[in-house]
Amino acid sequence: MTPHLVADGLTWTPRGAPPILSDVGFTVPQGQILAICGANGAGKSTLLRMLYRYLRPDAGRVTLGGDDLWALPARAAARRVAAVLQEQPTDFALDVREMVGLGRTPHRQGFAASGARDAEIIAAALHRMDLTRFAASPFGTLSGGERQRVMIARALAQEPELLVLDEPTNHLDIRHQLEVLALLRGLGLTVVLTLHDLTLAAEIADTLLLLHRGRLVAHGPPAKVLTPHTIAATFAVHARVDRSGPTPRFSFHL
């Protein structure tokens, strides 16, 4: 399949410190999901920041649909890439509908007010994330899981072609974890996300990328990537992989 997202040789080093990411590359076809897994400090969030244009790579290139992502004007990039991060605002004096409406900002010209199409897109995003009943509620009064769903709804309202999510199942109960992952599968978007749970990653992702200390350990279909050897190299634990079911299950020990 033709790659939609291409990362080639991505490297980033903070000033006066060792590299956090070194020569990492991968491709993601249109509409597929890539899950990035690794231990804390492996460079997962740094890699995501290069994809949503928060950190410019010291070396390497990111292209989306053939366009150099870092060569695009900021507003053009914001129309094409949406990010959902672990950090959630808590003190916004906005209700849920207004928060989701912020996703329409890159599509507005100047000080133009939102129109009927914006309202339809916002309503659809609220419905998709089961938030319609909270539309008029102050954002700051919601639980952590509810705020997480608002952030995803805001990203959907942005109508991106690439959706980047940093641990999107954090703060969610089991039911909403499964619902969010099922939603991501049905969006038809190119999705890159980080996950700690290898079982969830194997269930949702078309391909997995394992990182260890900023370097790529393995990249490919979950069945080929998640082996006892690669898990040991990534997480410094021993693993047993049970493949008797439709998706693998894991047990770990030191």
UniProtKB/TrEMBL annotation:
Q: Where would I find the ABC transporter domain in this sequence?
A: 5-238
Any coiled-coil ranges, and where? none
Q: Which GO terms describe its molecular function?
A: ATP binding; ATP hydrolysis activity
InterPro entries linked = AAA+_ATPase (IPR003593), ABC_transporter-like_ATP-bd (IPR003439), ABC_transporter-like_CS (IPR017871), P-loop_NTPase (IPR027417)
Q: Which keywords, in A-to-Z order, does the entry hold?
A: ATP-binding, Nucleotide-binding, Transport
**Nucleotide-binding: is it a keyword of this entry?**
yes
Q: Any keyword Amino-acid biosynthesis?
A: no
> Entry's Pfam families?
ABC_tran
Family according to the record = Belongs to the ABC transporter superfamily.
Q: What is this protein called?
A: Iron complex transport system ATP-binding protein
Source taxonomy: Bacteria, Pseudomonadati, Pseudomonadota, Alphaproteobacteria, Rhodobacterales
